[in-house]
Write a structure and sequence with these properties.
The complex is a heterodimer of chains A (about 300) and B (about 425). Chain A is mainly alpha-helical and about 300 residues long. Chain B has three domains: about 45 residues; about 100 residues, no CATH class; about 220 residues, Orthogonal Bundle (MetI-like fold), CATH 1.10.3720. Chain B has a two-stranded antiparallel sheet with strand order 1-2. At the A-B interface, helix 1, helix 5, helix 6, helix 7 and helix 8 of A face helix 1, helix 9, helix 10, helix 11 and helix 12 of B.
Chain lengths: ~300, ~425
């Protein structure tokens, strides 16, 4: 889109300056995320590009930090890399253990948040819902209230109820934090929902359950899945609640990263970060595809 | 009209009543769908926070463990000088504290309001079995601080489990021996300074995100969709990337031996001895938080800018306005709702930020959340942490209420 032909020379200059400014801002947004990817292949324990790396010398690059992710915490890291070695990785490597915890906690809290959140979003999007605004404000508040306040509140509550240091406790807490995202995405999907479809189903003899699973559910499914992904990411990235209420057995990836950053930051952190960046690219792609599908289903944009 | 028979449904009920009951039924049905989640949030979120806030006005470490002295304070009005009966009660309570090993708790509670007094209680309790009447002389003989009128004032206020003294402490104030509120000297204010710093830094970060977010939101909103959807990735990818990853990358970029400093040295802009310190201080907090919160500014701005028809600005131009005038008088006022939405959201999130300041803030870049965490985990003054938390929560909820009034929570959009 070039500058319009009626633009004055000053406006034309501004047009290009403006583009450059925008490019710099985009660079500011994306560069910090991308720069850690090459740095994680550094052969030296530095956080900057070595001369060998800049001259694209293969010696400057290595996967030693990725290797460290596997061997750190193993019982016999130097053994031959056969089945028993990989078994050792699976059973003992610290990063593998925390990844398992993250996935378990993320999975269950996502299920909980998505089920409760979708149900509530269905109720909230009905015009006859009483106290709609006040209830919505309460349900969204876990996203707004500073995380440190939530974490301290849960710390005392869980100490009193015996949930501290248990998986159940963290799953409940993470579900609470993920719920606002589910509600926001699902209600957004329901805004364009054509309620005459469910009425048509009812007039054709479908009971409410059938109408929900055959008509409503397929239409709002993209929104529900996006909400679930948001909830999963919230749990997967949460560190403060884990810091306050998790026991030694429930350490998660962010918790382990927190340790790494606070104590002695090593390029091994960068290799974890790189894996997480790739993970978030995959998630973003999925969510974008789902959003487009949802818009097409609801007829908001031409297919 | 009044003579006409009321309309009825097929089974003979008045239409009005039938409609009312049908509406009540559908209201109930909608509410029942929300109820499970509402109960869940109440139990796992509202109640824990409420309980925590209760600690800010309730601390019974003294009142529950010093029964005799509590009784004496109840019998004698404020301002009574401690007499022999008071010291006898104190000696009895110290003996009790020795038996129950609660002297540490009691001392810690009093120490919150009068620093340096914890050891008075622990050592006082240690030799509690040796006190004999007259107790006043015996205790003053042990340590003459027992006669300090301020100590008695503090013990009197601690004799009630309910206290406002933690809120006073949270705004750098204490009560002197007469019970009047005194403020800490300007240069010894810790908490007010930190609240002010938190608000100023949050305002600055909000302004920076606006400064950086407005141009790109405008560009995204004016480009054709197939380009803007591609460029949107630059905004959404940071949004979806782990917070710790983004914080880590800023540490890597900004530290003394990091990428930015090395580049500046290599290009000769600064020399090796003068590497900039951009991390583990206020600058680190500002840069990293601006980056992290920028998507929260761009997305609301974009959703407001996208539906603005480009013909408005063209009409202004055709009527003779310069491009600057057309932007200022036509386009900008239309985007104000987006600025309000993004600005409030970023400010709300910034005020309560914890992780990034804790990791990259050093000493000068700490915010109020970090101090709450400090009192929770290190100094273990949970009541003070709760008082600070409730002030912060009050502020955030006020902003949240404002957001709901101005923009409406329903309009919150993500991605």
């Amino acid at each position: 889109m070039p500058a319009p032909s009626y633009a004055t020379p000053l406006e034309k200059t501004w047009y290009y300056v403006y583009r450059v400014i925008c490019a710099l801002i985009f660079l500011f947004l994306i560069a910090p995320i991308l720069i850690i990817i090459p740095l994680s292949f550094n052969a030296e324990p530095y956080f900057t590009f070595t001369e060998k790396m800049l001259s694209f010398d293969a010696d400057g690059y290595s996967t030693r930090w990725y290797d460290l992710l596997l061997t750190f915490g193993m019982q016999a890291p130097d053994g031959a890399r056969d089945w028993s070695w990989w078994g050792d990785v699976w059973a003992n490597a610290t990063w593998v253990q925390v990844a398992k915890n993250s996935v378990i906690i993320g999975f269950f809290s996502t299920i909980l948040a998505t089920c409760l959140g979708t149900l509530a979003a269905l109720g909230l999007s009905r015009p006859e819902m009483p106290f709609r605004r006040a209830i919505m404000a309460v349900l969204i508040s876990p996203m707004i209230v500073p995380i440190i306040i939530t974490a301290t509140g849960l710390f005392f509550f869980y100490s009193a109820t015996g949930l501290a240091g248990s998986y159940v406790g963290i799953v409940l807490a993470h579900a609470t934090l993920g719920i606002p995202f589910v509600i926001i995405t699902v209600t957004a999907t329901l805004i364009g929902f054509d309620h005459s479809l469910t009425r048509a189903a009812a007039s054709l003899g479908a009971d409410p359950t059938t109408a929900f699973f055959k008509i409503t559910m397929p239409l709002i499914l993209p929104g529900v899945i996006s909400g679930a992904l948001f909830a999963f990411v919230t749990s997967f990235d949460e560190v403060v609640v884990v810091l306050f209420i998790a026991g030694f057995d429930q350490q998660t990836i962010p918790r382990q990263m927190w340790n790494g950053i606070r104590e002695q930051i090593s390029p091994a952190i960068l290799s974890v970060a790189t894996i997480l960046v790739i993970f978030s690219i995959a998630l973003l792609t999925t969510v974008e595809l789902l959003r487009r599908r949802s818009e097409r289903l609801r007829g908001l944009s031409p297919a | 009209m009044t003579d006409a028979a009321p309309l009825t449904t097929a089974d003979g009920r008045p239409l009005k009543a039938s409609l009312a009951s049908a509406q009540a039924r559908s209201r109930r049905r909608a509410f029942l769908l929300v109820l499970p989640l509402l109960l869940f949030i109440l139990v796992t979120f509202v109640v824990p926070i409420g309980q925590m806030l209760f600690r800010s006005v309730h601390n019974d470490a003294f009142s529950a463990n010093m029964p005799n002295l509590v009784a004496w304070f109840a019998e004698n009005p404020a301002g009574t000088d401690p007499d022999e009966a008071a010291f006898a009660a104190l000696a009895a309570d110290l003996l009790l504290a020795r038996e129950n090993r609660t002297a540490g708790q009691i001392g810690t509670r009093v120490n919150y309001d009068l620093s340096g007094s914890r050891s008075l209680f622990t050592s006082g309790a240690r030799s509690a079995n040796r006190y004999e009447a007259p107790f006043r002389e015996a205790l003053l003989d042990k340590d003459e601080d027992w006669g300090d009128p301020q100590l008695w004032q503090v013990m009197r206020s601690a004799s009630s489990a309910y206290t406002g003294s933690f809120y006073l402490a949270a705004v750098d104030a204490t009560r002197d021996e007469t019970g009047a509120i005194t403020w800490a000297a300007e240069n010894r204010q810790i908490y007010i300074d930190l609240f002010v710093r938190t608000l100023l830094l949050s305002a600055l970060i909000t302004f920076l995100t606006f400064l950086l977010g407005y141009p790109i939101a405008h560009l995204l909103a004016t480009l054709p969709l197939r380009y803007s959807n591609l460029l949107m990735i630059f905004v959404l990818l940071p949004f979806w990337t782990s917070l710790l990853v983004r914080t880590t990358s800023w540490i890597v970029l900004l530290q003394q031996q990091g990428v930015v400093n090395s580049t500046l040295v290599a290009t000769g802009i600064i020399d090796d001895g003068n590497r900039l310190s951009m991390i583990y201080n206020q600058a680190g907090t500002i840069i990293a938080m601006t980056h992290i919160l920028l998507p929260f500014m761009v997305l609301p701005l974009y959703s407001v800018m996208r539906p603005i028809p480009p013909s408005y600005v063209r009409a202004a131009r055709s009527l003779g306005a310069s491009s600057w005038k057309a932007f200022r008088a036509v386009y900008f006022p239309l985007t104000v709702p987006g600025i309000a939405a993004g600005g409030l959201l970023v400010f709300i999130l910034a005020v309560g930020y914890y992780i990034t300041p804790a990791l990259v803030g050093g000493a000068s870049g700490q915010l109020i959340s970090n101090l709450i965490a400090y009192h929770m985990t290190t100094s273990l003054n949970w009541s003070l942490a709760a008082a600070l938390a409730s002030i912060l929560l009050g502020l955030v909820l006020l902003l949240y209420w404002l957001y709901d009034r101005l923009i409406g929570i329903d309009n919150l959009k993500l991605g």
